[in-house]
Amino acid sequence: MSRPVRVGILGAGGFTGQELIRIFGRHPHVDLVYITSSEYVSRSLVEIFPALAAPAVKNLVFSSHPKKTEDAGRLDAIFLATPDDVALRWAPQFVAAGIKVIDISGAFRLLDKAEFKEYYGLEQDQPETLAQAVYGLTEVNREKIRTAKLVANPGCYPTAALLPLYAYRDLIDTSRPLVIDAKSGTSGAGGRKEKDGLGYSTVYENFRAYKTANHQHAPEIVQEFSRMSGSRISLRFTPYLLPMYRGILSTTYAFVKPGVTEKDCIVAAEALSARELFARFRSSVNAVELRAVQNTNFCDYAHHLDEKNGLLQIVSAIDNLMKGAAGQAVQNMNLMFALPETAGVY
Q: Among 64, 178, 328, 329, which has the minimal tally of Cβ within 10 Å of its Cβ?
């Protein structure tokens, strides 16, 4: 575009909304002109989040959520950093108004309506909008994202697991179950406000699993890796809560096909890393750590193959608020407007 892209954020007061504001404070091709929050209506960004008040965004004031799309003013794109039910309501309206939507909620990720009801507790009552949604794992669906009207941004756990799995997808025996253990900082487990079980006094000096049987990201991982590999897979997914703020460390266990060697795994892993700036292959699983990716849009990954029994271990790390949410969302927006894909996030 010859002019800056005019963008807005619904739910700008949450963790992901704040990260988007930080990114747009330095994005060379974007004007952030509209931010909403149910908590901070009519209060300035400088007052609420002074650390985010870069010159490009320092004059912003939080609005209430719109009553109609016209309330958002003239926008090219809107980011929905809202609860799922709010995004389910607003995404169709903004798409109909000709505004491109990057939805960071889970409202349009799952294709199966019964699964959506089971895991999100909501009716998927927007089938036409769901049919238009492109799953926003950038490195996998880049060409579809370029022409999308609505991008369903992936969850943080699925991003951490699926991006490295994409490298090894042709080597994995999909007739056998995958097992994923993933550990997240508290900002990956909920909204901005402290909830029961997420407060400092609860997570400090503690470590535990949560939502082990019903985490909403499990069917998302199954759906998308099944699409990648061309066959339906089964999964056991266990998320854990780390006593820290940001970052996800994920470990996937999968069996490889007969005859797959360590050399095959290295070739596949290096191929993804060679063509994708934000996918960084490390030589050892011991070299993958959170502090190397925090506050970045990178996904670091490595593997260990036990050739004796064919068990492949993949360890990956991302910042859940960047590559797992806001960073990837902006990466997708860049594609949608033919901007440099790395603008604002690298």
A: 64
Claim to verify: residue 163 and residue 302 sit in the same structural domain: yes
* Beta bridge mates, 34: 8
Q: Do 184 and 311 share a domain, yes or no?
A: yes
In 97-155, alpha helices (H): 113-120, 127-132, 138-146
Q: How far apart are the first and last CA of the chain?
A: 20
Question: What pTM was estimated for this model as a whole?
Answer: 0.95
Separation between Cα atoms, residue 83 and residue 219, nearest integer Å = 19
Residue 79 lies in a domain: yes
Instruction: List the 299-306 sheet strands across, edge first.
Output: 208-209, 235-241, 178-184, 248-255, 311-318, 299-306, 279-281
Given the residues 32, 80, 130, 156, select the one marked as catalytic: 156
Amino acid at 108: F
Catalytic-residue membership of 156: yes
Residues 148, 195, single domain; the answer is no
In angstroms, the CA 189 to CA 239 distance is 9
Q: pLDDT tens across 243-272, in order?
A: 999 999 999 999 999 999 999 999 999 999
Range of the domain at 23: 5-154+324-336
Which tens digits make up the pLDDT trace of 310-321? 999 999 999 999
Q: What is the mean pLDDT of residues 225-253?
A: 96
CB 247 within 8 A of CB 318: yes
Same domain for 139 and 19, yes or no, is yes
Residues 39 and 165 in one domain: no
d(CA 256, CA 221): 18
Question: Which is nearest to 326 in space by CA: 50, 11, 76?
Answer: 11
| Residue 256 is assigned to a structural domain of this protein | yes
